[in-house]
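re: ur question from yesterday

yeah so i grabbed the chain u mentioned. its 648 aa long if i counted rite. heres the sequnce exactly as i have it in my notes:
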Amino acid sequence: MNLPRRRPKGLTDMLTEIFTSDALATHLPEPGGWRPVPDVDDRAFWSGIDDTTRRAHLAAAEELCRGPWPELPATLWLDFRRTGNRVRYQDPSFARRSRLAAAVIAACLTDDDRWHEEVLDGVWLLCEETSWCIPAHDLSHSGDNAEGADRGKDLPDPGNPTLDLFAAETGSLLAWTYAVLADRLRERSHSAVQRMVDEVRTRILVPQRTVDSWVWFGRVRPHVNNWNPWINSNVLACSLLLDDDPADIKLTVERAVEGLDVFVGGYLPDGACTEGHSYWWRAGASLAECLETLYSATGGALDGFGVPLVQKIGRYPHGVHIADRWYVNVSDGPASIDGRAACGHVLYRYGVRIGDEEVVAHGRSLRGPDGPVVEPGTPLGRCLLALADAEWRAEPARPAPLVAETWWPDTQLLVARTYAGRDDGLLLSIKGGHNAEDHNHNDVGTVLVAVDGHPVLVDAGVGEYTAKTFSARRYEIWSLRSTHHNVPLINGHDQPPGAEFAARDVELTRDGVGRVGLRLDLAGAYPAEAGCRSWVREVTLDRSVGDGRVVLSDAWELDGSPSDVRLHFITSGEPDITAGSGVVRVPGVKRGLTIGYDPALVDVSTERIALDDRRLERVWGGSYLWRLALVVRTPRASGAVRLVLDPA
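ran it thru and got these structure tokens back, copy pasting raw so excuse formatting
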């Protein structure tokens, strides 16, 4: 069936061979010995922050710190169990943390009593919360903290804290607050500072060192996702900044490295992030944060960046970059991402460590030529480390590399553009793979096309997460089904979920005159009831024609007399199907896309899709996408369709 391997051979224990027990005992700092960011008393440093960055962060703090702090009553926690809605609790919870982080930066920049008081209020509020996780992740009523517990079934148990993504982030937020503002907070309350330290140890560090059954940790199953490095990056900061026993620091690091080995070992050998580009920033980027923390804490003596797969992971973001904020999106990753989530400094430092100029350039490009050193709203640890990095602050502006093409053979993903280093012309993406990828969408064979740096044939992405998103009802969500991806619908059947539903006979095609593409059989992605013996899709970017041309050819062999054969395409603009016989025009921001077809063979129709979800509206900048259907007029057991796509 040509399924990608789920675990590369010979890649286990890569990091634990570097970060051995003896090496950690020799090179880890003493408690309190790692302080990579100047604290508030270093007024020369904080007064030297450039005016653009200073103004941006102080303005953000003023905006976020208006009015009373958000409330989190018990009924709001229980709302998830009652309704399945996640955001009504998460919004005020995340707002508290954003407000505290902004106040910490403002306090460091100004050393003003007003901001120190604001920080004290935020610290105390977080310490008073019964749980730092979110209701959708709560395992406090499960005896073993294992996957499959009835999450959010009651109010959280303070005696059994859940160490999830957001608990770990909260611990890190408080640890970095302590690192830069402990003395100012002690002037106001010794007990608040001690409680802050005690709560992080109780809720974060002790569970990390003592519980083996966290699914994200890697001892329950041999494959983990972004939770692993995301949590570990925050845990490492908590331990190195707050632990007062060298044995505790060493144990925390040993367990974190063990988990990171499971994470890296679960990657396919090509280094692609099957969870989607946005999740790379909490997968690959968090892995880099872990390794950077250990590199920094050991004075460069222990370096995990030399592992070949780690280096490949770092090259994924610029490989899927379209232009500006747009990226090729797979799985649950959105098509665009903002500077708070995509912290350019993390990627820049990753590129420096692996010696890759394209990674460095892409990281620097995310900052823009005239923007702040780091965007307001960036998580506090990432923000502080960017501000403290003199090389990053001095790095001159660079354009994004915009590479000509990238092929991930194990993930079966191709991205290619007309012109290397330029955003004009066409960009093509096509993927094979299977339908059990992390954060999976049923999308084997999907094709994306951008024109002049803007997506035109698109993957909608996924809306706000709810209780349904990660349940047995996941594929009731329209944007996750193949009916709303750029793939065929065969005899009324869409693609089911499961690793067995996969592309076959995937072949990269190239010639000597600038053509590159992918040929693959989609039949294996459909259920037996579809009666599909083969469906060979071949998609090619031809750079020899104008600003590029994409040719898509589908040829099929079906059982019996098929009743319905159609191709679907999701578009970012409303298709004009009256443009002339045999041509569909799809508008774009600069130029649009023309799709040429045989009108004797197919009928064309369009359907408007309402984006009744704030996350989708934010990504696409409007309330609608469209679904274009090309329906074969008289479907037969054997047939073919050829489409020609050009910039309008």
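noticed a couple things. Residues 165 and 231 are 6 Å apart (CA to CA). also The first strand starts at residue 321 and ends at 323.
anyway ttyl
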